[in-house]
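writing this on my phone so excuse typos. first protein, seq and then structure
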Amino acid sequence: MSGTYEVKKGDTLAKIATQTNPGGVSLEQMLIALYRANPDAFVGSNINRLRAGRILNVPDKVTASTVDQEDARRLVVAQSQDFRAYQGKLAGAVAAAPAEASAAQRSASGKITAKPDEPAPAEAKDQVKLSKADPEGKGARSKAAKGDDASARDKALRESQSRVTDLEKSVQDLQKLLELKNQSLAELEKKGSAKPAAPAPAPAPAPAAPVKPAAEAPKPAAEATKPAAEAPKPAAEAPKPPAEPPKPKPKMVPPPPPPPPSLVDEFLDNPAALGALGAAFLGLIGYGAWAWKRKKATQSKFQDSVMGAP
């Protein structure tokens, strides 16, 4: 126990629970913890019928937190329903008592008199005093529920804004890829226009040199005429010139292979990827409009609920 509290006239358990709440527990948990720690301080074992002048033992945070929140809420609702039934019976009894007393007086005196107007302040005062605790509990629960709804809406809006930011970042990355692709294409075009100006394999037609053996071929024929003039030496044949070895053909230098396609080239050469980019961009625009409308509608609904709350 964390201390004591003396019940003053006009105090309600909801007021005491609010003042002595150590934090970290709900109002319902604190109400039931006070009720269980002081069972003899309540008339008819009802949390709404607190005895004035009693010294209450105030439970600490650990004790109050052991109360199950759902059980505490159900007990508070049941106690409130019982108290409202008690109020109805009490109001009926209070209203019937003056009528019976007036009828008895008229019959005893033998005179017929008009029924005086009964002053209602006493009955209204009793009703206000008896039902004071219940509206406070309802107001606290309604405020807590509204706070939870507002937190949930804020969380949903933050998640929506985060998704929109991610989509915008993806679109920016795709735009950078497109710019890199355009730069790569421009560089390739420059290289392609520069290559025809200085072709490396142009000196390839140089193998015209082997024509020389054809020009020297008549020399053996001229020498061959000498054996024809020297008939007595038929066996001597003119020596044939040694065949010149064929000159090696100049090797053709193959053009350098084209550079491998980059990631940007593959992305832009793929129509499906370009279509996905366009769809993502349109989806981003649509999602942003939807998130903005939803945020406006949520804010308007929340303002209406707050302004319309009792």
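second protein below, same order as before
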Amino acid sequence: MQNNYVESQKIVNIRTNSYKIENLSPGQTYHIKLKKNTIYGESIPIPNINVTTDDTIDFSIEVAGVTVKQTESQVNIEWFQSPVYKTYYIKYKLIRRLSCIKDRIESPIQVVITTNTKYTLLYLEPNAQYQLFVTADKNQNMKAHNFTFITSSKVPTIAPSLLT
């Protein structure tokens, strides 16, 4: 913050008399002050204006920076914090059991609700393929571009016994 301004932008646009400011937070009031600088110097100040954005949140915008890292026993998910979204939904589902059958299976979507920007999935089925995505939309179903991962196989904890 400098001179009570959160941000200032130098706009170079000589073709039109408009400029679109994107990625503003919903329900916030912004004080806009314009100055025109030309090769002849600074112009007479243009009247300031206060603009309040609509408080409707667009949940269709994807959560940015999602990464999925696997270890032998868990899946760690992280993403960038959004200035707009406060609640995130991690949605995942089992799509294949690799030890039994290679065909896709229809399993229900599991949903984890969190306000954090990282989460660890535990107790997933071993040797299985999952789809996963992170969203701010509680009603969104699986989408075309999901993360797909395969869980590790488990090593037996007891020795096999021979049947005679």
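The radius of gyration is 25 Å. thats all i got for now
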